[in-house]
Each structure stands twice: as structure tokens, then as C-alpha cells.
Amino acid sequence: MATSLASQKSKSTAKQCSKCHHRDDSDDSEEHSIPEGSQSDCADDGNYRTDNGDVELENDDDSPSQDSQVKDKIIEGLTKQKDSYLNDKKKVKKDYESTKVNLQKDIKAFFDAHEDESEAAHNAQLNRLAELLALKASIEAQMTTKLADLRAEYQIHSNELLAAVNSRIKDWK
């Protein structure tokens, strides 16, 4: 993992420092000498370029067991990341379901309360309507009685007036 794929494909053994472009044909990775007055600070950084320009890292620590350890660490990290993602997803789903259930309960409770209030208001209106209808019937009964009394009085007064008119007519004859 420490070396690039392009450098592994390269058949060239000549290497060049990636910063100061110092050529190194040897296999040892000891510090190369930098000419006086050079502004390179790359000595002992271990980075070299092959003849085709690919960067190759020189590390004495590279071994197959390290590669498998790195792969294992990467796999472990990806597994943890996936587990974390799945746990977060489950938590979001659980929170959503909980919120959905609570919201449905709240909406149901709100509509039940509204229905109870509207039913109470409707019953109050029906009771008031029944009272008003009873009052109307009572008033209509009183009006009927009063009308009958007025007719009777009118008839009596009419008869008295007719008798008075007839007696005057007799007197003139």
C-alpha cells in the first residue's frame, strides 16, 4: 500500500527525489547529499521518482503483514462506518415512527376533543331549539285563546250595535 501502482509497473531502477530531483540508482535508502546552496529540504523524506515520473515511497517497514493489517484496519473502519450508518438509519426510522405515532395520537385526541365540544354545542343548540319551539307553541296557544276572546267580544259588540241601530230605525218609522 505504501508504493504506488504506477511505480510497481515500472521496470526502471533509477529513482529521483520528488522534491530536489536528485537521481539515486542505488537500492539503499540512505540520505542523499544535496549540493550546497540548494533550497531543497527533502533529504531523508524517502520519496523518489522513477524514470517515468511516478512517485515511489521508500519505507523499510513495508511488509505483507503490514499490508494485511492496513487492509484489516480499512475493512474494520468501513464495517464500523456501515454499522454506524445502519444504527443512525435505525434511530432515524425509530424516531420517525415514534413521532408519527405520537402525531397520530395527538391528531386523534384533538379531533375527539373537537367532536366532544361540537357535540356538546350541538346538544345545547337542540335544547335551546326545543325551548324555543315550546315557547312558540305556548304563544300560539295564547294567540288562539286571545283571538277567540276577541271574536266573542266583537260578536257581542256587533250584536249590541245592531240592536241599537235597529231600535233607532224603529223610532224613525
TrEMBL record:
Q: Polar residues compositional bias: what residue ranges?
A: 1-16
Q: Where is the composition biased (Acidic residues)?
A: 53-64
According to the record, the residues making up region (Disordered) are: 1-76
Top-level taxon of origin: Eukaryota
What name does the UniProt record give this protein?
Answer: Uncharacterized protein
